[in-house]
Amino acid sequence: MKRNLLAGLGVVAALFAMQFTQADAQGGLFDRFTPCAQVGECNPCDDDSSCDPCGDVDSCSKKSSKWFATGYIEAGFFANEYGQKNFYNPRTPGYSHNNVLYGNGGYSNATDGRYAPLQNVAHTGGQLNQLYLSVGRAVDGKRGLDIGGTTDFTFGTDAYLVQSNGLEYGAGHGLANDSWGTGDYYSAIAQAYLEIAYKKWNVKIGKVYTPFGSNSYKSTDRFFYSLADTYAMVPATALAAYATYTVNDKLSVYGGWAQPDQFGETSDDNAFLFGFDLQVSKRLALSYALGVGTNETDPTNDIDYFVQSLVAKYQVNRRLTQVFDWSLYNINPEVGDRQGVYGINTESIYQYNSRWAFGFRAGWGRNINDFLYPSAGGGQGYDNKYTFSLGANWTPRKWLTVKTELRYDKFEDTAAFYTHNDDGTARAAGKTDQFSGGVSAIVKF
Questions:
Q1: Quick one: average pLDDT of 313-332?
Q2: Structural domains in the chain, sorted by start
Q3: What pLDDT sits at residue 122?
């Protein structure tokens, strides 16, 4: 396994060396720091309203047609120092991305390399992370009522992250494995919503990405190959109906109803969603999101939950951008102890030139009563976790981006997480920290 890791690092070194032989690209991956750019390294041309506070869809395209069909594919290689592979336990019909509201099947066992603690990359080996297709019609309410919508389909090792209880899996689909995929590969309808715009108002109804946190599921909208730990702390998608009001060119607010990480599986889970996006100055942007709700699925144990995140993005200068993300998820059941998780994630992105960008990421998370990554027998959750990543993005063409990353994870106050050898046998003494890394390529079409 060490040979594989060294080989992967060799590929990284080769990619760095290639910068001296390539022609200049037209633009860097993060060459989009305009007043319309929003926090979370998102694309201002993305259909997610939290990434388009200016609401000017037409300015994002040279074409006059509002109909669109786009996509990309990301594939890569990831490895770790122990040769840790993926090990699977059947996930229960009560699986949930954030392991909160539908039982303890959320991230299954801590030895599941794709689930914990690396969320979107298999522990070791080559993988197709995301095949992503997006079709729909953009809206522009400046001239009056306009109706459109978006449907996004995704397939790969990442797709389980945006599956919804009641759509791609869940009690309505019978057995645990009767979902859209198994093992490493899954598929999902990441988004499917109707969008209505009228002057300063925008309404979305359907399955949407949630506005929590700074990391995006879409690999084209984040710098690092792997996801930050804060992504696991908050819901990824929701069945929602909410309205966004653009107060002015600096402030937009939104509010409405949501069901986190599900798609109509039950009517006994309802949350109030609220938030705002504020362009404080030319350099500083803030985004706040809040979700408060109650899950009454279990007739003997109602669960109140509270979710919030605050993201700050500061443009230090023309080349350097700093992102700060604080996220929290807390549940308070009628029966049992309170559970929750909270943490911070910081990213420093330096745009060296039009082809190369470099990044450093640091994160800390606090886990309460095994909220995340519990083992099948219990007691394998953690209290504190630290994560550090170094990364580089190389963009030789507008349609091609190569990402490299070296990552370190450290658990405290926990039993060992890295417990298997590369042949699948149990290790006599597990580990609580791990170096890992990989390289991926994104091709847009």
A1: 96
A2: 2-444 (2.40.160.10)
A3: 80
